[in-house]
Amino acid sequence: MKLLATTTRYYLLLTAGLFMVASVLLYLGLDWALRSEVEEQLVNRELYLRALVARGRPLPATPFAYQLDRRPRPRALGFSDTLLLDPLEQEMVPYRELTFQLRPGDPAGALEWITLRKSLVETEDVLGVVLGVMLGVLALLLAGVVTLNRWLARRVWKPFQHTLAALRAYDLHRHQPLGLPTPAIEEFAELNQALNQLSQRLVADYESLREFTENAAHETQTPLAIIQAKLEQLLQAPVLQEDEQLTTLLSDALGGTQRLSRLHQSLTLLTRLENHQFAPTQAVPVYLDQVLRDRVALLEPLLEARQLTLTLHADLPLPPLTLHPGLADSLLQNLLHNAIKHNHPGGRVDVLLNRRMLEISNTGPALSVDPAQFFERFRKHNAASDSPGLGLSIAQHICSYYGFGIEYAYAQAGTRHTLRVQFC
């Protein structure tokens, strides 16, 4: 729920609650005041009648029988409410009445119970008018609050909406701070200033990290290549042919250097993917079936060495995909290498490519863990493998970079491992 809508709701609840309480109190106060006025008039009439009787004069006649009632039998004394039928309107009308004792005429005469009545219709009419006015004012007040908040949302909160839109569209990889304006409202001005400072620090930190990554990748790759070349030269030296132990040590060192080089390249690629350092302008139309055939041709010696059978089925013609050529090649290489490395001698690799997906299925060992865990970094099928365990993580990052879906499925029957990339 939006902030302005939330505050408006609380304002409306508070206003309506206070207004209802005030209306009830006003209604009760007016009702008490009007009834008190009616009772005062009835008391004045009682005093008037008592004064007439005290002077020996008879009770005056009244044109309306309901205004004065004389009965010889006892009745409850004091004020009370009653309903009488209006002969003209033919409906029950509320009255306020006062009953008292009086001896009209001769003081030694019989005691009578006199009841004076006054209609409360005027009182109810006044209360109805007051209540109607209060409800009308309440409706106008609530409508005014809603209208005012909508106006505030369009005008006063406009700088905040502009800031929010700028934050949604902000891309750190453009290497530019936000550059938000300074609005007239102090709170929004402070917010924009803080966001500008934050974006400046983010850009500076991002540039430092990017430069460090590029420098580290460049500066470490060269020594690794030199070490690998020197070790290869040492292994070819004739003097080492007589020292088998030294040859083994150098071979192990060369293997570790090669693994370190592959790990360095993989981590560098992951870092560039996470930092979005592949410019969109570098993406070109790529025919994935051709790249796939080229990659399979390069892997033929490895397939023969492992005695694996690879079948490729592509639904031609296929439309090109707009990708970075290097990332497209890296994606296919990692998926195919995964299917070959984690296979068994005499196994199969089946590749299916169509407009919607790329599916690579291979035979392999049974799994005891969730296949989705293999997308994590340094997660391997076999802990003793020379692989750095980054192939599927790189494939997942490439798919995420271009909005593709990727999933790992495992079928216990036949121990089939399937990696599926959804293009759409």
Automatic annotation (TrEMBL):
PROSITE patterns: HIS_KIN
Name of this chain's protein: histidine kinase
Keywords: Kinase, Membrane, Phosphoprotein, Transferase, Transmembrane, Transmembrane helix
Catalyzed reactions per annotation: ATP + protein L-histidine = ADP + protein N-phospho-L-histidine
UniProt keyword annotation of Zinc present: no
Any Pfam family matching the protein: HisKA
Class of this enzyme: transferase
Organism of provenance: Hymenobacter lucidus
